[in-house]
């Protein structure tokens, strides 16, 4: 079940983001380097305060994944010049604890974000690191269309009715 995050979820999500950033660093990929210090996971607190932080919980209400879903900020609007033309949500910081990797939690998180966007009549947009070999096939498999390739980022968009492979 997906729900808005509660204050006690924040330390879990901060830990997951930090651990994932460390794991990505071990793979020598330049992604999420910003989160390699615990202080920089403060953004999770900011997401919570802006009411944009979501958590996937298991049957016992234990958090097992998270994402942030916004109506956009300066970062998004710089990447998506048509942001005023299309009502869209922007997906950020999709994270699953390393210990739960491979259990299709990422798929459940994406499906939850897509449902929220669909219910609002919005498209769903995201950017991701271009050089992470996992991300492009993952998002394509989940019905996102590659809209643009930038120097370091890929821009994806999902719209209601997109085929999920």
UniProtKB/TrEMBL annotation:
Record GO terms (molecular function): acyltransferase activity, transferring groups other than amino-acyl groups
Domain N-acetyltransferase: 1-163
InterPro entries named among the record's database cross-references: Acyl_CoA_acyltransferase (IPR016181), GNAT_dom (IPR000182)
Database matches in Pfam families: Acetyltransf_1 (PF00583)
PROSITE patterns per UniProt: GNAT (PS51186)
Superkingdom: Bacteria
Protein name listed in UniProt: N-acetyltransferase domain-containing protein
């Amino acid at each position: 079940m997906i729900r808005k995050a509660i204050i006690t979820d924040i330390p879990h999500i901060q830990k997951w983001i930090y651990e994932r950033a460390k794991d990505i660093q071990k793979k020598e990929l330049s992604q999420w380097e910003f989160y390699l210090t615990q202080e920089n996971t403060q953004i999770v607190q900011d997401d919570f305060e802006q009411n944009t932080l979501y958590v996937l919980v298991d049957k016992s209400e234990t958090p097992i994944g998270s994402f942030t879903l916004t109506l956009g900020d300066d970062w998004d609007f710089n990447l998506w010049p048509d942001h005023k033309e299309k009502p869209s949500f922007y997906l950020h910081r999709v994270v699953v604890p390393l210990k739960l990797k491979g259990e299709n939690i990422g798929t459940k998180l994406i499906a939850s974000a897509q449902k929220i966007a669909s219910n609002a009549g919005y498209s769903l947009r995201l950017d991701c690191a271009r050089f992470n070999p996992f991300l492009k096939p993952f998002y394509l498999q989940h019905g996102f269309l590659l809209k643009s390739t930038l120097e370091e980022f890929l821009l994806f968009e999902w719209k209601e009715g997109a085929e999920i492979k």
